[in-house]
Specification:
- The structure is a single chain.
- This protein has about 475 residues and is α+β, with helices and mostly antiparallel strands.
- The chain has 2 domains: about 170 residues, 2-Layer Sandwich (Chloramphenicol Acetyltransferase), CATH 3.30.559; about 220 residues, Chloramphenicol Acetyltransferase, CATH 3.30.559.
- The chain contains 11 helices and 14 strands.
- The protein has a 6-stranded mixed sheet with strand order 4-5-6-1-12-11, covered by helices on one side.
- β5 and β6 form a beta hairpin.
- It starts with 5 loop residues before the first helix and ends in a 6-residue tail after the last helix.
């Protein structure tokens, strides 16, 4: 398939200078884990060249259709060299987490150049303890979080000095070709345009049915949009990054004892952190905020590359003061949202991709962004949970000791929380607009504190104590 899928095209079309469409992350490496401390920049470039060659789409470039009348095409890049996408710089002294976060906050938000393959990496040297970090960015139109996590596990090693093994190319249903001629572009565009009205009617029917069901079950209150907050406004081009980590065993213990899911606990922790952030500023709305939760649409054995993602809006229960009440309210809301998604409810991202031309989506994104303070909010922020390897991974023998996931900000939403589970820990990455969130570390540091409050509440409750 040479043309981008509808889902892939949405992430490209909705991009603006204030809302870049890429995702990424920060891998913090400890080179001392290698017997000869063999990590250096030149070796990393050679390593990246070899491993990224396993996934051909890292060498593809976009051919966009004039005026955004149809989905772009993937084309093969002439004289592609991964080295041109890999950079290096040194961290300012003393090279701690805050200095690393400042560098990441400057590098991460830059919009990727669409005339080149849509990814890059930066090796950051001079960190405390001889550590090195790799900041990677790739456009969301290339793949979703689940694809990215799976790709990481394929590309990196499970031992400092692994035995020789055959390198297997990543399976990809898409393909790139030569640049598309005007006639082919026109005929394909007309054919795709003819299918959009029927797709729009189908999705509108689904949306109307869901709204009717909500009104029937909950009345007008159940159909109200999420309340506006100080971080739901017009995005700027700046970003700030912060992170925290917790033991996965602590989350699994709560899951078992309280009869909820890991995702429920993640939503409860993030809800507690956001509630405390707003309460400290006397800005907590009386009604609950809503979290948008990405849902993978791929089967368990599907390792293909590309976007197969939808999302559901879940009541975040920020109006509940008691941590346990908050968790159980989230569990109930999330269970209902998942049931609706499985029953074939509206997938907004899919609906937009199938119903609207990329140029229209681009105009919609800009209009929504400018009307952020007045537009109805389906949710207040995105919270995403992506599993990764349960055991340590290595890059040229250097152990990956920390992972910081980073994602994009949707129009009207001033921060995003993404968590990856890696090597027995949950690593939370918070990306925020500093114009809308004055202290992103307050949210990141609040997540472990919210977990502690949950544990204390469970221990004090006679239903669960002991």
């Amino acid at each position: 398939m040479q043309q981008l899928s509808n889902l892939d095209a949405v992430f490209l079309s909705m991009e603006t200078p204030e809302a870049p469409g890429h995702i990424g992350g920060l891998a913090i490496l400890d080179p001392s884990s290698h017997p000869d401390g063999g990590f250096d920049f030149d070796r990393f470039v050679d390593f990246a060249r070899e491993r990224l060659a396993l996934c051909p789409r890292f060498s593809w470039t976009l051919q966009e259709v004039p005026l955004g009348l149809d989905r772009p095409y993937w084309v093969e890049t002439e004289d592609f060299d991964a080295r041109n996408h890999i950079h290096r710089l040194g961290a300012p002294s003393p090279g701690g987490h805050r200095e690393l976060a400042e560098i990441s906050s400057l590098l991460y938000p830059r919009v990727l150049d669409r005339s080149k393959p849509l990814w890059d990496m930066t090796v950051i040297e001079g960190l405390q303890g001889g550590r090195v970090a790799v900041l990677w960015r790739l456009h969301h139109c290339m793949m979703d979080g689940a694809s990215g996590a799976g790709l990481v596990e394929l590309l990196f090693d499970l031992e400092p000095t692994p035995a020789e093994r055959p390198l297997i190319e990543v399976r990809d249903e898409a393909a790139a070709g030569k640049p598309v001629g005007t006639l082919e572009m026109f005929t394909t565009g007309v054919r795709n345009a003819l299918g959009r009205p029927s797709a729009a009617l189908r999705h509108l029917s689904t949306a109307a049915s869901e709204l009717t069901q909500q009104l029937r079950e909950h009345g007008l209150d159940g159909a109200q949009p999420a309340p506006h907050t100080s971080f739901n406004g017009v995005l700027s081009a700046g970003r700030s990054v912060a992170w925290s980590r917790i033991s996965f065993d602590r989350v699994k213990h709560l899951k078992r004892e309280l009869g909820v899911t890991v995702n429920d606990v993640v939503l409860a922790m993030t809800s507690g952190a956001v509630r405390n952030y707003l309460e400290a500023r006397d800005e907590l709305p009386g009604d609950s905020l809503y979290a948008s939760v990405p849902v993978s649409l791929r089967s368990a054995d599907d390792k293909s590359i590309g976007n197969q993602v939808g999302e559901v809006s879940v009541e975040w229960a920020t109006d509940r003061e008691d941590p346990l009440e908050r968790l159980f309210a989230i569990h109930e809301a999330a269970t209902a949202a998942k049931a609706g998604a499985k029953a074939g409810g509206l997938n907004l991202i899919e609906a937009m991709g199938e119903s609207l031309a990329p140029g229209v989506l681009s105009l919609l994104a800009r209009a929504t962004s400018q009307a952020a303070e007045k537009a109805p909010l389906p949710s207040n922020a995105v919270v995403s949970n992506v599993p990764m390897s349960p055991v340590p991974m290595y890059i040229i023998g250097a152990r990956i000791e920390g992972m910081v996931p980073m994602s994009l900000l949707a129009p009207t939403q001033g921060f995003n929380i993404t968590v990856v589970t890696y090597n027995g820990e949950m690593h939370f990455g918070v990306v925020a607009d500093p114009k809308l969130v004055e202290n992103v570390w307050e949210i990141a540091d609040g997540i472990p504190k919210a977990l502690g409050a949950l544990e204390e509440a469970a221990e004090a409750d006679p239903r669960f104590a002991g």
